[in-house]
Amino acid sequence: MKKIIVSVIALVSTAAYAQETDSIKNSKNIEEVIINKMVKKLDTESSNKMPVKFIENPQVYSSIDKGILENENIFTVDDAYRNVTGLQKMWNPTGRAGDGGSFFVLRGFPSQASTRNGVVAPVTSTIDAINVETLEFLKGPVGTLYGSTVASYGGLINRVTKKPQQNFFGAVSASAGNYNTYRATADINAPITKDLLFRINTAYTNEGNFTKTDAKNQYTTFAPSLTYNVSDKVQLNVDYELFNNRVTANPYFFYLSPKTLNGIDNMKDLEKVAGLDYKESYTGKDLYMTARNSNVFGNVKWEINDNITSSTYINNSDSYSDGYNPYFSIAYDAASSSYLVARADQSTNDSKKSWFQIQQNFNFNYDFSNGMKNRTVVGFDYMRTTERLRYKYLNSNFDTVVAAGADYSGMNAGALSALYANSANFSTWDYLRDLNTYSGYISNLFTPVENLHIMAGLRYENNDYLGGTSGTNIELPFNQSAFSPKAGIVYEIVKEKFSVFGNYQNSFKSNGYYASNVAGDMVLSDPQRGNQFEGGFKASLFKNRFNATVSYYNIKVKNQLLYTGEYTASWASVQKQAASTLSKGFELEVNAYLVKGFSLVGGLAYNDTIDESTDLRPTTAGSFWNANFNLAYQFVDGKVKGLGFGFGGNYASDNNVTGDFILPKYFVLNANAFYDAKKFRIGVKVDNFTNEHYWTGYSTANPQKLANFLGTVAYKF
């Protein structure tokens, strides 16, 4: 607590001193640059598929600019999540093809990062932020613009990437930190001609972690992009992304329950009483997962006239994984009066999942007299999803060891390889699936008078599932269609400064056939639907230096499948379409630059989610309360111009992950400092400097990083 008080006093004192001694002469341009780096940009285009200002948008969303990532010395999208109100990370990336990316929870529903520049681009491993310009977070169901295969009912993440520019410039950097972390990056913008522009972003990171400092996890990112201005009206963009990672798994603990833990119902007591070692990996050497994501994007933008623009997208995303994925469970053994850890493995074996998409958008923008204007996007979308996933798992646990003080090196690549060499020791489970999705949508923002904005939209989507297999179970083909409407209204009480808004949003999901009884009779489920009603206020004051949103939402999901606990002869779960979920809560988010050089980003979120079939909170809903803040100060003139400091943190209340087992509340604090000059930049950070033990997960427990330091030196040209 003393560290927190000292840090706050030092930061406030520095800001006050700087304010007292500031001179505003010749600093306006410098300060504007600093504002752009210290405060999130809130107007958006790609996420809404049309240009919309923050104050006139009935949708609630957050955004993180690359400047914030630079100041906080952040180099992964995962770490950037800490700046988003209401978003809670739940599961570290495993690298598995298809679903191996980080899981997070928004408004009580789990989701994953799934889009890039407004089109589908899932990355199923750690996402390097080297080519990120902005991260955009849409809150609530967004099925109208994105459909059933991309967005969750809680929201969506969209990565907006860096684009080639007209001038030559670049930066290279080197970083080093604890846990044997080393990193090198390059961002080079090199126009070939005045109309042919080229940019490349690349990064390499080698690091251990707090449970295995010699892990030598490797992350390689290669992201070139090309822009060709064919004419004043036509632009061609071609982008490529390659994320190639080789990583050891962090510890994952499953099946946590007081019934098997001698009454212990939370992770902190499990550490204190059972001796579970927070810093122990519980594995030996070389249990690597290779994860590769390759994304190719093509876009043609054509300004047909001053009011109509055509945008055509063709993109293909491939995910691949192969390697080990150990996991654990812990239980109390009465016979030995000790706690035992059972060690197991579920590997992926040449697993692949791919998405191919063609999307066509037409934007119509018309300004009329007396403040009347209209913006419309009309789009058509085709997407092919292909799964060729293979999971390989031992038929029994690898072994059982005591929870504290043992030699855990025996579970290693050599030992598992020897077991997998004998087919009698393991089984496989394959997912072979093909899905074609056809969609058409329209979204319209109409301003009939200067201060009133009315939004309406509708999507029609057809899911044509060609059939497949889930292990030994045959999945029947089906063809199912659904509509997804949305509506919103904004009234600017004070023009461009203060508005009141309300929205209705919808998403849906096709669940296909399900086994309705133990005899295996199959029934085609109705589309699952989520409907949100939300209202609140937005403020954009002091020349956009203070932006805030406060809102209350209510999301009702119907037609969910409910497991009965029974199984068919082929071990397919018996279900019935009788479940529903209600999620309600509020969010307050503030983004301010009120005092020269000083900024605040922060917010508070509360979520109450209920599974109405059980009257219990779902184990995937996350914590009731989440809060985040980041205070930063940068000198804008004087002898130390460019020197900056930051201090921030995240709070989450208790998280019930299994119905009767708790991941305890946590408060994690971070600090950073930097010096930004014309030709170079130096940055240092210490994350979790109080060395907080904190766990994330849903239905699982996954320990998070202890105190970690990183220093970066960059040369700009």
UniProtKB/TrEMBL annotation:
Kindly give the InterPro entries that the UniProt entry links to this protein.
Beta-barrel_TonB, Beta-barrel_TonB_sf, Plug_dom, Plug_dom_sf, TonB-dep_rcpt-like
Q: Where in the cell is it found?
A: Cell outer membrane
Is this entry keyworded Cell membrane? no
Question: Which residues does UniProt assign to the signal peptide?
Answer: 1-18
Report the principal subcellular site.
membrane
What is an example of a Pfam family matching this protein?
TonB_dep_Rec_b-barrel
Give the SUPFAM superfamilies listed for this entry: Porins
Q: What protein name does the entry list?
A: Iron complex outermembrane recepter protein
